[in-house]
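User: structure tokens for this one?
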Amino acid sequence: MAEFSDSGMSAQGGWPGMPANREEARALARERFKARLQAGEPVGQCGCHDEMTALGPSSDHEPAERVAGVRFRDSGQTYYFRAAGLDLAVGDWVVVDTGRGREAGRVVIAPQAVRLSLLQGDLHPIQRKMDDRDVQRMEEFRRGSSRAIRAFGARARARGAAIKPISAEYSFDGSMLVLNYSMPERERHVDGGTLRALARDLAAEFEARVELRQVGPRDEARLLGGVGRCGRTLCCASWLPVYPEISMNMAKTQDLPLNPTKVSGVCGRLLCCLSYENEQYKQMKAIVPRLGQMVDTPAGPAQVIGLQLLKELVTVRNADGVDAVYSSAELGLRSSIAEAAELAPAPAPTVPIAASEPAPPAAIDEDEAEPPHDEAAQDEPAAQGRRRRRRRGSRRG
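Assistant:
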């Protein structure tokens, strides 16, 4: 008989709809917490929704502003705009002024008071909340974007330009059309005159201002979407706001293959998820014994032959050749691991950015999205192999 929680209450004797087991109860609790958070309701007794204690240290002398977090379709980053007296909720579509004109965005953070000292950039107001007719018209433009992509590709081929259309995005009123494209590695750029001519032709065809933007491999994957090696939707296309800095050293720290093809995503660049657990691996490796090291176990001295860092398990082999698996507590390592976690520096608090202009996909330079040494680190194993072969060939000669 399944039991609920630790109280011994059975699922059969409980109220209707009672969770059958502990895992189901936890899943329901997570869903309730997520729903309350999205609705902007207070959670616990943290005071996160208080007018003057929402963000930053309390001070009666610092001016605060009521702002809402807005996200645009072509950007995973959240931008903050002045909400003034508007009654907004998470999921509402709003019209805001940006450097590219008026655009539509979706509220992802309910309006709350934020100190001006924590905001960066210019804080622009939200013009108005979109009504159902505005949203319907915007959806019609979105459905018509496929026609714009096909026309863009046909005209580019007619002019002999090596351009791969990626996506098309209309402004909320259809007055502006942004066309994103990529180019093969062998083609660094297209003649400016050709691009201007393409823009003029497309503007005449769609009766809207046309802007062409070149994007790199990471932004191409984000705009097109897809499924990663894990079987889930790409992080950059679903929730990741900013590309993290990644290097092959992260793969080495996590004992992953150093072959770049095995740790690269659909975009051909290093997997963003290499950065997710890197700090935990570094902390654990600073405590646990190394492979080949002799350690004292409850059964006597043994040699370490395997590590499961996240599970805190160590596989050892004694003098008789018998393998055994011990937890960190059995080897006296748990207290050290807990101390290391406590001494680890806390992550810096996220500072909201109030921006008047959403960052276009091309604003992130793909050569700067990863440190310069990353590409060299990817090519290093192959380069070492070529040098060894050349040395052997010279000796044979």
